[in-house]
Amino acid sequence: MAAIAFDRVAKVFPDGTRAVDDLTLEVADAEFMVLVGPSGSGKSTALRMLAGLEEVSEGEVRIGGRPVNDVAPKDRDIAMVFQSYALYPHMRVADNLGFALRMRRMDRHEARSRVHAAADRLGIGPLLERRPRALSGGQRQRVALGRAVVRRPQAFLMDEPLSNLDAKLRVEMRAYIARLHHELATTTVYVTHDQTEAMTMGDRVAVMRDGRLVQVDAPQVLYDRPANLFVAAFIGAPAMNLLVVRLERDGDELVACAGGTRLTLPAALVAARPGLGAYTGRDVVLGIRPEDLTLAAGPGPDVLEAPVTLVEALGADVLVHLEAVVHTVRSVDEQEAAAEMGEAATAPERLVARLAPSARPRVGERVRVRAALERAHVFDPVTEAAIR
């Protein structure tokens, strides 16, 4: 086991593309670190530089305190698990698991012991005589994990290992990997674009955007205190509602105004964010998570009214889409979809509320929703930074 460090690391490809820029990140010994971000954010490139599969253009990568920029991948004492299972189709599961040990010319009895121990740990002991074509996707991924486990490396590197699995298997394999890390306590760097995986698996999560690290913290801290609009929109499902409002003074109170909508910001929120005082008379982005919207019986200083455009019943809760009377900002996923379709980055005027399953408003019905503004987030619309 070993700590891992990126020290001002950059990757510049021959065409000038800067895939990773000034990445500084430390992963503690035995920590499970998740790199998360949308496609093209540089997370996989960072992992490949750590593995030695990509050369480092600038900065230094260290494993266990040792600089490894010029160390061959096979000499870095790491094990990598890829999105593709990369199993040898003509070999039995047992041979796939033990292949790296044979290449090291390990004693046959020791190698067999490690293979059986890893297979038992991952629940694939009965599959050792099968070939990969006779396995399900989840079983193949466990074999790929077992092949990494038997090596007992200083660190595991995992590049979107669950993206080829269906939803049910992804949940199952998340539990396997989390349990495996708990048992082995091996330093792990895990890359994913799925923020649910990031939130449920990581000790800490590093959010990347356009090759740069934008925030790294514990999953709950990212959710509760996003540093900027990007993190706010990326972490959480459904995405945070982001409303463009103007802050105005009404006596001692600070009011968020947009069109005919006026939301009075609670004193506790204003006190916790003293920087809001400088934004009086200016536009800000007000962030409200879908779970912080509830049905309201009547009007109030924290109530929005809008017609329902879509109702999604999920069993445990209901997602109610509202035609917002307030201009909103697109989430990260919406921005990417808009870019692919050549659309502008402005958003459809809508809000999403996560309500109890008993709430079943009809499409077209006007409803009132109360916002838990004490838990709201406020961002500068130009710098996109959270206002503190």
How would you describe the overall organization of this protein?
The mean pLDDT is 92. The chain is elongated. It has helices at residues 43-51, 93-103, 108-121, 137-149, 167-184, 195-201, 219-224, 229-234, 267-272, 332-340; strands at residues 4-12, 18-27, 32-36, 58-63, 66-67, 78-81, 155-159, 187-192, 204-209, 212-217, 241-250, 253-258, 261-265, 283-288, 293-295, 303-313, 318-323, 350-355, 366-371, 377-379. 26% of the residues lie in helices and 31% in strands. A six-stranded mixed sheet has the order 6-7-8-3-9-10, with helices on both faces. The chain has a five-stranded antiparallel sheet with strand order 13-12-11-14-20. The chain starts with a strand and ends in a 9-residue tail after the last strand. The longest helix is centred in the middle third of the chain and has 18 residues, at 167-184. By secondary structure, the chain is of the alpha+beta class.
Q: Radius of gyration from the CA trace?
A: 24 Å
Distance separating the two termini: 38 Å
Percent helix range: 25-40%
Structural class: alpha+beta
Q: Provide the low-confidence segments as ranges.
A: none
Total DSSP E strands: 20
Task: Name the helix and strand elements from N-terminus to C-terminus, one letter apiece.
Answer: EEEHEEEHHHEHEHEEHHEEEHEEEEHEEE
Described by the principal axes of the CA atoms, the overall outline is elongated
| Proportion of residues in extended strands | 25-35%
Counting H and I runs of at least 4 residues, what is the number of helices?
10
Widest sheet: strand ordering: 6-7-8-3-9-10
Mean model confidence by pLDDT: 92
